[in-house]
């Protein structure tokens, strides 16, 4: 009986594999795309291609703990006058399931299950009091002749970006606390249709006998026409102040070919400062921005955080989010700091204020470092250490923050911080705290 069952299972597996490999006739005489070693791709209808590993997912992880921590970040930002709006960019399969080939089901894709998982993702953020944009609903408002994603690329199209920008603007306009946000008369004009440099297209072409068309998109430019909203009465009234909206995100936001920044400025009728980083993944841009002088000196009224839904917010543990929370609004008390060597800072830890919910703040005096190693010790020589390492995409920062709880011991009395670059004369170590709950 067992052998018979195994034989049946093997037969079903072979049948399923055969179905998956025997794809519908390719429009470009492509072969072996779905089994490519480095980047398998499915060819859909009407010239749309789907990255198999990402687009066949029906669930995108967001733990309750990660959602709650983003909720804490949102709360801390709000306490300092900044509204966080999270923008999860969907996969192409979520936004455009109608172009998927029938073989997608053989790879595990289930449209109803994927949509249910997406709604659960948004619900978890809502439960954590995080304002998030339903980007799929926004893209579904496009007319039939406008597509939210580029067929031969994984990025969204300017139309898709514009639909999401409008949804963000609607959210801002429906937020009473932002009624006095400074606005500016802005027009949006087309700058013409231009080709898109697509690494995905170049990859696909290797598997196709026929030439693939070069994708083209219509670009747009937002132009300020002056005549702001008058007596806005906010912190951006000064000449040295920055725009009321800050945008942090990935290549979806950073690359001009998608015109997201311009569409956002037009739909909100407000200036937008774009700090997005191509290749920065979920934390590159927001980490770089919240740890910058720009954020400290000119906090925006709105912080828009764009992140593709497949970039797991809990994928690197809690440290990235914890550091963002501290950078957003921790109150820090400087410690008596020594600088025994150019790259070393030391201080004694205060017994009355060094708790598991504390942060150790490191101010190197200048944005020149990408690594800080923190070594805690007690009077008996017991030590615990951790290293904060900035990625190449984030670049050097002046500040580093480490949440105490993972390494905390009641008997730690001293901290030594080793930097990759010399500290400035005014460099300091601090203990930092937040109001309210950490989760």
TrEMBL record:
Location of the protein in the cell: Periplasm
Record keyword Lipid biosynthesis present: no
Domain AlgX/AlgJ SGNH hydrolase-like: 41-308
Pfam family, one: ALGX
Keyword Signal part of the UniProt annotation: yes
Superkingdom as given in the UniProt entry: Bacteria
InterPro entries per record: ALGX/ALGJ_SGNH-like
Pathway, per record: Glycan biosynthesis; alginate biosynthesis
Keyword tags: Alginate biosynthesis, Periplasm, Signal, Transferase
Cleavable signal peptide: 1-22
Protein name: AlgX/AlgJ SGNH hydrolase-like domain-containing protein
Organism, as annotated: Thioclava nitratireducens
């Amino acid at each position: 009986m067992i052998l018979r069952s195994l034989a049946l299972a093997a037969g079903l597996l072979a049948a399923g594999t055969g179905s998956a490999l025997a794809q519908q006739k390719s429009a470009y005489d492509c072969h072996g795309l779905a089994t490519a070693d480095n980047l398998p791709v499915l060819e859909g209808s009407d010239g749309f291609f789907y990255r198999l590993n990402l687009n066949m997912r029906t669930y995108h992880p967001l733990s309750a703990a990660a959602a709650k921590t983003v909720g804490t970040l949102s709360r801390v930002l709000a306490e300092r006058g900044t509204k966080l709006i999270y923008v999860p960019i969907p996969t192409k399969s979520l936004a455009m399931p109608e172009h998927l080939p029938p073989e997608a089901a053989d790879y595990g894709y289930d449209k109803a299950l994927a949509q249910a998982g997406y709604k659960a993702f948004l619900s978890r953020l809502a439960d954590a009091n995080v304002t998030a944009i339903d980007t799929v609903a926004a893209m579904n408002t496009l007319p039939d002749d406008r597509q939210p994603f580029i067929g031969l690329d994984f990025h969204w199209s300017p139309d898709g970006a514009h639909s999401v920008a409008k949804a963000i603007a609607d959210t801002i306009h429906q937020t009473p606390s932002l009624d006095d946000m400074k606005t500016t008369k802005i027009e949006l004009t087309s700058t013409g249709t231009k080709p898109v440099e697509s690494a995905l297209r170049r990859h696909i072409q290797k598997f196709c006998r026929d030439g693939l068309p070069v994708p083209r998109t219509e670009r747009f430019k937002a132009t300020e026409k002056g005549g702001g909203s008058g007596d806005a009465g906010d912190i951006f009234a000064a000449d040295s102040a920055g725009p009321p909206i800050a945008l942090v995100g990935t290549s979806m936001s950073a690359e001009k070919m998608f015109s997201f920044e311009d569409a956002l400025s037009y739909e909100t009728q407000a200036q937008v400062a774009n700090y997005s980083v191509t290749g920065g993944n979920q934390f590159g841009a927001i980490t770089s921005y919240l740890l910058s002088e720009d954020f400290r000196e000119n906090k925006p009224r709105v912080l828009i955080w764009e992140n593709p839904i497949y970039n797991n917010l809990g994928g690197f543990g809690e440290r990235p989010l914890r550091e963002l929370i501290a950078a957003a609004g921790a109150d820090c008390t400087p410690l008596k700091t020594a600088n025994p060597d150019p790259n070393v800072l030391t201080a004694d830890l205060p017994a009355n204020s060094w708790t598991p919910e504390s942060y150790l703040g490191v101010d190197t005096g200048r944005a020149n470092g990408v690594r800080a190693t923190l070594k805690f010790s007690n009077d008996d020589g017991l030590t615990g250490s951790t290293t904060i390492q900035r990625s190449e995409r984030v670049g050097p920062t002046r500040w580093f923050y480490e949440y105490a709880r993972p390494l905390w011991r009641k008997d730690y009395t001293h901290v030594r911080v080793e930097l990759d670059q010399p500290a400035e004369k005014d460099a300091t170590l601090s203990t930092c705290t937040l109001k309210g709950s950490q989760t």
